[in-house]
Amino acid sequence: MTTDTAPQHGPHGYSSHKADHLKRLRRIEGQARGLQRMVEEDVYCIDILTQVSASTKALQSFALALLEEHIKHCVAAAVEEGGPTMDDKVAEAMAAVSRLLRT
Q1: pLDDT per residue over 33-72, tens digit each?
Q2: Is the full-model pTM beyond 0.85?
Q3: What's the rounded Cα separation, in Å, for the pair 5 and 15?
Q4: What are the Cα distances from residue 6, in Å, to 3, 9, 57, 64, 95?
């Protein structure tokens, strides 16, 4: 598994859907602000928890879409290259899946 954690810039699997992803993230950001407002306004706990659940599901859905694009683009390219690059990208993707499953 690679230990290089420096940000990588350039065309990634999500690049072709960047505008859609940003729109989705802005919607999630709005949900988070809505949660803050609900707490400020002393809204009933269960209603806030319902909104937390919706926000969590929205983030999970975004993460899965991003992971799918990563596998189709970055991992697929590494598989074509083969060797240690392939092993590193597969391990990196599996680590991301593991993190997602822990949440």
Answers
A1: 999 999 999 999 999 999 999 999 999 999 999 999 999 9
A2: no
A3: 20
A4: 9, 10, 29, 22, 16
